[in-house]
Specification:
about 0% helix; 3-stranded antiparallel beta sheet; mainly beta
């Protein structure tokens, strides 16, 4: 068995293989080499190296012309690791990353583009403390109902509706209860009418 360090020179995404150049007197380029993945059957993973990435290759013979496999990548003098501490981090070329800080017990996800979550059944989010969301616009579309249950629901801003508002009990404003609110009228056309009329009448 032969172990060599080389640089990826070409990628065949369809076959899941790469070609590797081994720096030396002749800068020999290998044949297509299989890239080792974590899972490839019922569960599958896919993470191909990039061109110019430094990789470790093992050959089942004694020369670079034998069947070989790329078993992983290594950092060299020209490429710094994304972290220099005990954090787990996967960072893409465009700056998108997934990170877990073992000391803070904190997971972070950042994406330069859209984040899309889909499920054929339910999506549930549970937190023992707060759930905070900040955005420019928050759009929610439900085919049936939107249910919010809490002892107190605070809405800070103008509430607009183009549909009916059903209230089972009462509406309390800064001026008091709607149920207990009465208007006084001058019933000039009907002197025998009551001088007050409730909003519930």
């Amino acid at each position: 068995m032969l172990v060599r360090t080389g640089i990826v020179s070409d990628i065949n995404y369809k076959n899941g293989t790469v070609k590797v150049v081994f720096p030396g007197a002749d800068d020999y380029q290998s044949q297509e080499l299989q890239v080792i993945h974590r899972r490839t059957k019922k569960d599958k993973s896919w993470n191909m190296p990039c061109v110019d990435e430094v990789v470790i290759v093992i050959f089942d013979g004694t020369s670079e012309g034998d069947v070989g496999y790329v078993i992983g990548s290594v950092y060299d003098e020209g490429t710094d690791p994304p972290n220099s501490d005990n954090r787990f981090k996967y960072i893409a070329e465009d700056g998108t990353y997934i990170e877990y800080d073992r000391e803070l017990k904190q997971a972070s996800l950042y994406c330069v583009g859209d984040i899309v979550a889909k499920s054929d059944k339910n999506i549930k989010a549970t937190a023992k403390e707060n759930v905070d969301a900040m955005c420019k616009n928050f759009n929610c579309v439900a085919e049936s109902q939107v249910n919010i249950t809490a002892p107190v629901i605070n809405l800070n801003g103008v509430v607009n509706t183009s549909a009916v508002v059903n209230v089972a009990d009462d509406v309390i404003t800064s001026k008091g209860s709607v149920n207990g609110h009465n208007h006084s009228y001058d019933w000039a056309h009907d002197p025998g009418a009551s001088k007050t009329a409730s909003m519930n009448e």
